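REQUEST
  id: r-88c1
  op: predict_structure
  target: Putative oxidoreductase
  payload:
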Amino acid sequence: MTFDINNKTVLVTGANRGIGRAIVEEAIARGAGKVYAAVRNVDSAATLVAEHGDKVVPIRVDLQDADSITEAAKVASDVDVVINNAGVATNSEALDGDAFTNLEFELDVNLYGLLRIAHAFSPVLKANGGGALVQLNSAVSVKAFSNVATYSASKAASYSMTQSLRESLADQGTHVVSVHPGPIKTDMADSAGFGEIAEPPSFVANAIFDAIRDAHFHAWPDSMAKQIGSAYQSFAENVVEADMSETPT
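RESPONSE
  id: r-88c1
  status: 200
  body:
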């Protein structure tokens, strides 16, 4: 089953900069009729509105604030595609003194934030015919790096949840996409020390909409991601995406 983004309504969390901004711009370039720029501070989306006019609608969403997400789902009741791009990283190693605090913060945003989005928007997507739910999970969700140990763990957890959502939402016709970027030119990549090998955010945006169009579950946007994805492909196809009738004990 394919999905055409043309004239559809899209919501993007963390839309004001970096990958999120690139996703908004790519959605509009592919013909989206409206894009909700879901951000913690609606003023931060002003430049997007100035550039794209009423195609961009700022809306407040804080992944740590369940009420803000519930209210956003009421406002964006016409949404066809929800892209949960927002996330946080603290660049903590496993044995750092603040590892517990940082992991708690990253789990609250990267894992519980996804779950809050899914709970609020799944009924909206169902009412509008199914659509798509997209989660930014990172290459570190399948290959941890010690300098971002707690971030890697939080993204591994969100990837696991995304797999479950794929199965849970299939019956309502919602296609779920798990996106696994490697180093992308963002402030997050710079702070983690990956700035020199990072690639453009547009790679991620293109991979997302290609995966939605082609009904793929995994998306590996950039050079490092493709390398990891190629090695992971057999497991992904034969285990993660396989139809297993019984839950392992």
